[in-house]
């Protein structure tokens, strides 16, 4: 029986070694993404999304779990005119009791010049 117990251990090691070989394709995909999307654009978008998240916490003055379901889609906003962007943001923030104009103005200023993303990075 002791000989049989060592066999599954050997099989596990073989399976583990074959799993290491599957790590190469994701690295290649990452390389394609950094070529397709300018790294500066990605960082700017990430900074804006973090700013939005922080501002929403201030506006709604609550913890993450208590935040209302609210999704501000930057790409959706970029498809709209300035007036439509402002209107869409006011519609999304209607449940917020605090003044929203500073947030809306700040967001509209930050997304100026940002390009719409298409493809795999858009959720």
Automatic annotation (TrEMBL):
The keyword Phosphoprotein applies. Signal peptide: none annotated. Keywords: Acetylation, Phosphoprotein, Protein phosphatase inhibitor. Belongs to the PP1 inhibitor family. One of its GO terms (cellular component) is cytoplasm. This is Protein phosphatase 1 regulatory inhibitor subunit 14D. Residues 1-26 are annotated as: Disordered.
């Amino acid at each position: 029986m002791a000989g049989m117990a060592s066999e599954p251990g050997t099989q596990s090691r073989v399976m583990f070694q074959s799993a290491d070989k599957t790590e190469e394709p994701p690295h290649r995909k990452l390389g394609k993404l950094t070529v397709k999307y300018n790294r500066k654009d990605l960082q700017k978008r990430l900074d804006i999304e973090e700013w939005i998240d922080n501002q929403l916490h201030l506006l709604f003055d609550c913890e993450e779990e208590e935040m209302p379901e609210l999704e501000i889609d930057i790409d959706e906003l970029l498809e709209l005119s300035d007036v439509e962007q402002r209107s869409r943001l006011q519609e999304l923030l209607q449940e917020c009791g605090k003044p929203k104009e500073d947030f809306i103005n700040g967001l509209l200023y930050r997304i100026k010049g940002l390009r719409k993303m298409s493809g795999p990075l858009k959720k």
